[in-house]
Batch of 4 targets.
Target 1
Amino acid sequence: MALDSKVPKGPIKDKWTDYKNHIDLVNPANKRNIDIIVVGTGLAGGSAAATLAELGYNVKAFAYQDSPRRAHSIAAQGGINAAKNYQGDGDSTYRLFYDTVKGGDYRAREANVYRLAEVSANIIDQCVAQGVPFARDYGGLLDNRSFGGVLVSRTFYAKGQTGQQLLLGAYSAMNRQIARGKIQMFNRHEMMDVVIVDGKARGIIARNLVTGEIERHSAHAVVIGSGGYGNVFFLSTNAMGSNVSAGWKIHKKGAHFANPCYTQIHPTCIPVHGENQSKLTLMSESLRNDGRIWVPKKKEDAEAIRAHKLKATDIAEEDRDYYLERRYPAFGNLVPRDVASRAAKERADAGYGVGHNETGEAVFLDFAFAIERYGKEQALIKGLDQNNKALITDLGKKVVEAKYGNLFQMYEKIVDENPYETPMMIYPAVHYTMGGVWVDYNLMTTIPGCYCIGEANFSDHGANRLGASALMQGLADGYFVLPYTIGDYLSNDIRTGTIPTDTPEFDQAEKEVREKVDFFINNNGTKSVDHFHKRLGKIMWNKVGMARNEKGLKEAMTEIKALREEFWKDVKVPGTADTYNEELAKAGRVADFLELGELFAKDALERNESCGGHFREESAEEDGPQKGEAKRDDENFAYVAAWEYKGEPAKAVLHKEELEFKDIELKQRSYK
């Protein structure tokens, strides 16, 4: 199958407008006769469900949580990007487009990224109209802050809880449509499979997680907005329920899975603190606006901190290495996430880490300078004594608390240290996934009538997502892109009528789902689901993690396959299938992770270059000012890797979507 991205012709700045001018539409009276299933009700799925229902379609929305308000989007902290140039610092649609393509290490589709930048400004207006309480400056205008990989302030935020506020906006829009009967909401329902009829996605099989009942649901189109797959590593910043299963189910029915090796390691997370830990906690990248990252210059100081013989505050200023500011003077602490993460790993590997575990896997994020700076500014404004250190500290803390208070509170509760008085300890952790289901310009997968939006698709972020762009992409897809493009497809279905569920295709799909559920309940194994998930996570982190090499990737593929075979023989799922059974739900999700993990390693092995979040040790700059930085190979790897399912992950077939760069020059990234 040849991959057709369906990117419109013409100048990039006109593509989206011209495209909308010429696509087929469904008139309002006909929308009432068309059904759409939306799987996932986070920012992408929630905004899509609300908008499609507002337009007049009949929507069935599915969430495995007890409410859309519990979608993992709620955990996003720092903000949402938009090219509104409120700061007057030179931002524009083109600059957001450029920063996103460059930040993604030139591995994104130009046309999609430009459209994302173009509609970004509309998102802010939409959310303000919904009542989202964005931060405002002294004059009452919406405030902005900066994030990594950019030289402007374009990030709109609501303290450190932007995702929560945006999700509540989408949820309120959904609730209005639920009350009108335009959205049927299925909470505590998990999609178990997609149903293909005559080559088109025409419904899903869902399981009621409370009663165990297997249900058939039909529609004229199916939209997947089920988030990312970071939990393939077991430990990640994702909610523990986040999974790949909806995307993986459609992959196994014909949707290509693209760039699975593109996974983002977030540089500012609370370090791992024990073997029994089940997830990691993110500290927002927004903290890098005011926090300075450092490690001791002397190894003996780092060793003393690890041994609890010295504290961070004991290290004199001249004995601190602000390594990001030293290595990347132009961007400093605000380099992109992949660059900051690798730099932290390099310092820890070299023996300068300050964590209290054997490996010292932590660096400091220090707010003392920001507290002093803000304190002096406030003292000057209020006409107070700028030489009174206690007063300056108190005033500065209040400013920092107003900007980041809930984040500092979270840190103190988890680590039991006061970050106003001692630097935070942070270290990189698995966060966002740039890979996902391949989609064309319309956001349609390689299965006709099956769409994929938000983090679940292979995204507009290339090989590395810039901070505050996840919320932007999810809401752009749901509010402003999919509602147009899906109409072009559904215009052919205005006379189709309701899709029946008493057909051989639904029979077969339900049969397969029941067989898998019965297998898990009846398998007489001895090991828990978590036992296998943790072992998978260790293989992934050690051999497919922040740095990868040919030997490790080949070993990972062999080990994951063996682990998967052991899982199917020896997994133990307690309880029954006809009641709420979290272990049963988890078993199905981990089964999918065990297949994805191998494809992930295969994709990383195939891509013998370094780009963004994918760092191959064999492909690093060997000398010059860029020594040690990721080295892309544009001649051989300027493509999207889209994998077709052929049974075993090792047998997956690679399809390449060649990437063209007509509006941005293709060159090695530099943040120095």
Note: The chain has a mean pLDDT of 96.
Target 2
Amino acid sequence: MNIHPNAVTATRAALYLRVSTARQAEHDVSIPDQRKQGEAYCAARSYQLVETFVEAGASATNDRRPEFQRMIEAGTSKPAPFDVVVVHSFSRFFRDHFEMEFYVRKLAKNGIKLVSITQEIGDDPIHQMMRQIMALFDEYQSKENAKHVLRALKENARQGFWNGSLPPIGYRVVAAEQRGAKTKKKLEIDPLHADTVRLIYRLALEGDGASGGMGVKAIVNHLNKNRIFTRDGGRWGIGQLHRILTRRTYIGEHQFNKRSKAKELKPEAEVVTVEVPPLIDRETFDAVQKLLHARNPKVTPPRVVTGPVLLTGICYCGNCGGAMTLRTGKNGRYRYYACSIKARQGETGCKGRAIPMDKLDNLVAGHIEERLLEPERLEDILSSVLDRRQERAERRRQHIAELNMRLTDAELRLKRLYDAIEAGVADLNDPALKDRIDGLKAIRDQARIDAERAQAMLENSTHQAVTPATVRSLADTARRRIRLEGGGYRRDHLRALAQRVEVADREVRIMGSKNDLLRTLVAVQGGKSAGIGVPGLIPKWRRGRDSNPRYP
């Protein structure tokens, strides 16, 4: 067939259709209409429609869109497969002014023009400027819409509702309230995975019975080795597990709007705290945070946590407050703890002295063995802590009793309803009766879950009755555990009993935390190592000057 040289080839067109949300795409809100108008537009202008790109549920504020990138890749290839890209409006193509101009020019370099069905403009400079102004308005409108959406989400969170993302492991989303066509949702504890979260915290604080408190990597290895998988059945990773150990959701305080899209922390004023059922008690959570903080290389160098020197990282000069570090003499034959300020600046910085390492180690460990781990003194030091724990334990018992009463009451009510149905007094097909049964079942099941959780928290608490026999047993076991076979001391044990040692001119001051002391002793009594890590907070259990060892 002969073609006349003056014949005009039909303009080839590609349609780009986009909706903003997956929900719009699912319900076919706008894509069919965009397609219909686009095909009619091409037919009216005798365009040959060669390809259609459909973007279902993607934002136009960025270029992270698969179909958009496929269209750009095709439009910049040689030879170009189409001559124009047809969109319903320029906002379907892009809502960012700068990015829109970048891609318009990129297509133009390959001879492809962008046209809008509802915003048709020419090619002269004034019309190009009009397109840029429209893009600016689209960008502004997009940002305003985002502000309104975020405001609505924050208000939803303030009312205690869940905003639709995947909940943390250990929780599940349940319908809480119906408002018109919208179902408001909240979080509840997921009994299938809650125990995994509790286990992770227990391993971090107490270990697995063969060692002391475990670090993040050790917990990951333990879970994977024992085939305790993630919610999706996968293997655990370090980052994933660290997020669980630091997430405040597990103490009942879920933080919404904490980070921006760029993962940057937002100001506290913009963060909304949503109350959810707690999985972990606050005392356990705070103790784990102290451990993570102390083991952070930015806070405590790895050599301090894992090094062989007994008091590295917890020994300080009593005169200037500077760290006392290890110094050697005679080619390493003699080892000393010396003030680092004096070592760097001389006596103008500090007049602190150097002390033989073995002498100070024995002095500190001996004092802990002979004075701190003495039954009467232990009872005196720990009495206030144990009293508070006794009060908390009593409150938990009362709460468990109330939950069990609620559970029993719901079961009795259900039994009466079932008896009425069997006797023919009530009609099972009555919608009101069904709602009543479902409501009582929900109350019963929630009361059972809450009671089991409270009972587990009570059983996992470190409360021990203050009796002479108990204190004597704790002290004797701790004395045995602090020493290693063949001499020397158990480093992690000592550092859990004492978290700061200050060396002054005439005395050595040893300080620590009452809570950590009790936790260490109970862990030892239970057959676990007392290695609880290096706490980041140092409340003083020192009762006075006479309780501290002195050296000549």
Note: Residues 276 and 406 are 20 Å apart (CA to CA).
Target 3
Amino acid sequence: MTSPDLILRNGRFTTLDRSNPNAEAVAVTGGRFSAVGTETDVMALAGPATKVVDLKGRRALPGLIDNHLHIIRGGLNFNMELRWDGVRSLADAMNMLKRQVAITPPPQWVRVVGGFTEHQFVEKRLPTLEELNAVAPDTPVFILHLYDRALLNAAALRVIGYDRDTPEPPGGQILRDAAGNPTGLLLAKPNAQILYATLAKGPKLPFDYQVNSTRHFMRELNRLGVTGAIDAGGGFQNYPDDYEVIQKLADENQLTIRLAYNLFTQKPKGEKDDFLNWTKTSKYKQGDDYFRHNGAGEMLVFSAADFEDFRQPRPDMPPQMEGELEEVVTILAQNRWPWRMHATYDETIDRALDVFEKVNKDVPLEGLNWFFDHAETISEKSIDRIAALGGGVAVQHRMAYQGEYFLERYGAAAAEATPPIAKMLEKGLKVSAGTDATRVASYNPWVSLAWMITGKTVGGTRLYSQRNCLDRESALRMWTENVTWFSNEEGKKGRIVEGQLADLIVPDRDFFGVPEDEIADMTSDLTMVGGKIVYGAGDFAKLDENEVPPAMPDWSPVRTFGGYAAWAEPETDKALRRQAAASCGCASGCGVHGHDHATAWTKSLPIADLKSFWGALGCACWAV
């Protein structure tokens, strides 16, 4: 009998195996769990070559799997982006922006591309255009807030060429001053096309840098405990050209996230041709356990895509939706390709189900793991219709970022079960969880878990009554075993069970013991994919087998700030800024700070140097 390659002992393993829910040790052989049980039984299997890791009594969980992550697109750009995900004050965010502007060379931009909401800031606001221009008079700055708006400084407007003669685009609105000149605010009215198109005008990284960038994004996800994801495609992400980087990493065995990818159509009115071509040239499930094809979507036809900006009225899909959708779904069903479909509102889901039911009469959908994405306002009737057709619903934590806007438009009663996760689970529907990162929400899985458990937004607003909140084990299953149906990998991963892929994490805190308000701040101290430790920190830092070269280019924000909540920045620097802010009574209308510290970072006085006299005390408000 072959001895295991690796044994993890002295742990508290939450296996999610109902016949063996808790274990003390696991063995790994050939990238799979080969034993899960008591320490005595598992250690008896050890051979002279078996590596043994002592977990020191720590809790271990199955690796987290994101059901909807734009990881391929996100990886190409990660090293260029200044992430405001998890930053708690606009003052800190503006300080980060100012420091990044100082080291970003022309013709590069400084980009803050989603993953945050103004409600997460203590100031409860976005920066003003005046503040952006003060911080960055010459370096282009592009800030994307969810998919509702973008803020551009004057330098960005100049580079892009938006001026008083620029016509109003069909997919958005350029706000202008009294003279007709663009102010720098772009609004997604009636959809986000202007935001996509403007961002696409920015410089791209060279291929080798994109490879490095994707590796850093995967490592950031590993740091947060993510071991797998389903990629939902994306706008301006063309197949196969924009998949070359991820394919290279797969070919060279450098993926540290297991990835199933869906193909997203790119051209309105060209959707049928896309899927006719792809079903001829690609095979469903082609690939391996690290990189494999997962069908179509999330965009099937543009006429069926409802826009998820809750600041805007619900859009009605055009009358041609059903005909165009039927053509594409028929092609997919005939070729036995599953699909995922973006649908925010029940009105869209209802009309799409009419199409799916019609296709089902001629080409049975049984056995196809198709599903709707998002489904914030799905009705009980639609839930039952989906179940009858054998479909599922993939939810994401977009309401954690847009919940306040939903409340403003639709009220608290409508928000109480948006989406109705608990009811869908109660009815036995296939349901799983993810993020929809990197733009409309953060890629941090713990924020999603906290949202499902507490019912609160990242801004602290309570959306859901207790009956729509999940207990911790149910929420964990939403991020592990439940996701495997959506990639047709049930029984292969998602639990710590003999024979399944050896993907697990050891969080920095006990998920089942940590206070609710700390769940969103959790990370992983040990992340294992296929028996390889791809991330190690704290007690397990020396076990890390995934050395990644420094972020490229050398001015990358990743080098300074890392990622979520600027984790790479020394805590002492953050503490000094918080201390200075706490000692300042900004409400007094200080001439240096204005009325908050976000304004302070844009001033020319040396107030950002917190160790100096002017940084700590050099203002009119310190003595109030």
Note: The chain has three domains: 78-201, 207-507, 582-617.
Target 4
Amino acid sequence: MPAPSPHSADLLVIGWGLAGLVAASEAVAAGKRVVIVDQEPRTNLGGQAWWSFGGLFFIDSPEQRRFGIKDSLELARQDWFGNAGFDREDDAWPRRWAEAYLQFAHGEKRTWLRAKGVGFFPVVGWAERGGYTAAGPGNSVPRFHITWGTGPGLVAPFQSAVEAAEAAGRLTILPRHRVTALTTSDGAVTGASGDILEPSGAARGVATSREVVGSFEVTAGATIVASGGIGGNHDLVRQWWPERLGPAPSTMVTGVPAYVDGSMQIVADSAGARLINRDRMWHYVEGIQNWDPVWPDHGIRILPGPSSVWLDATGHRLPVPLFPGFDTLGTLAHLRATGYDHSWFVLSQKIIEKEFTLSGSEQNPDLTGKDLPLLVKSRLGKGAAGPVQAFMDKGADFVVRDDLDELIAGMQALPGGDVLDGDRVRFELEARDREIDNEFTKDAQIAMLRSARSYRGDRLVRTAVPHRILDPSNGPLIAVKLHVLTRKSLGGIETDLQSRALGADGQPIAGLYAAGEASGFGGGGVHGYRALEGTFVGGCLFSGRVAGRAAAAAV
């Protein structure tokens, strides 16, 4: 093995996802020399954020006001803290980060992004609707702003800034450099060392070799860990899985590439950084197997509108308020208590045409490509959007039939379908349909559908007119088998409001910073137990900006 390849810089950034790119661009803007390392080939520049839907949480935005949405910092704070449920001594810094992030989302966040050329889809989405009391979990109003260009559009200005600095000789990008240790001197972190992996021409997201061909060392005045979470590492997800959510699933699909492996959290812990809230995590329950996978066990999340009937594996309808899009972790906890790893959506063709969107930049070519004609056709035209139709035609989890008996038989024919009680499915759907004939109802989901359609955005692109699912004129009938899909770590490296990593004594570790998912999106867990959505890439933006500015000022 050749001698370690040496590098030096003012700042070392570990990880080139959105948080890392933002931090690096801020440091370069402050006149610092930067080295970025990542274990993947350069095709993956932008990390997980490139694959994202690009949803952003704003408070009292122009887009909200145009739709008559009355939002405020006070209402958003009520929702955030009611959702987070902070209840630990370890939540001291996460609480402060939450307050700071709310100020950012209400203040300069949108202006800052607009100045960088980032635009937003005019219709504001309503994610995590809650359905409890005013002080409980969920968003009281729509706050989910979709980036025009989705994830790639959000990554683009920061990638451009980094590449311009690289061309100017002020920044170095080192692909296939995997950090295995943070180096220290007199208690301060002075850089990192690790393995150089063999070159790879793999496409973005495709799993790559871990064959070691050399070693490296980087010396830096400050080091920022921006390496992401654990969602691609099922073993670690199960190891840290919280008892309050029930037993960990035996089978899951994966919502992030394999390189999201949590390895840097272990490295940071070994260097003295304090990991907190590791048992807080965010996994979806509307995952489907990708018919055209990129990474191992590749799953896609359905971003559901509120109309589909949600059944557990046996055919029983989920309780109030566990409707599609209302309470992600509440639904996960309920389904884990059933003893099965899957559940079902049952819906009509009218519902799938109006309400089904798939998460991910690659599943939304109209928004990602900024293609207005395709946008109008896919969102407002007849038939399901192209990517959704592809899953209906080719997806292993979709059953499409003309009548209920055939639908139930198709559901029972899928793996695990033998536990489905067909009579119960029929009972649930027929009972639900009887409630449609009157404008008043005791069915809380139907009442919520009618309420949702009072919001112009839902009526326009997100919520179908309530109708009988079993009426053949609304068909065909569709069932979708749903899996747990791994996604986000809500805990991580504890940081103060300057993104400085804290040690076991609560004091900053000299020279060490953390940002993005590696830091629980700020402080070691800015979301608490639950996220309000649009706050993951937003948390990367905010914590990356804080880390880059603070580290640059310190060296």
Note: The CA atoms of residues 136 and 319 lie 17 Å apart.
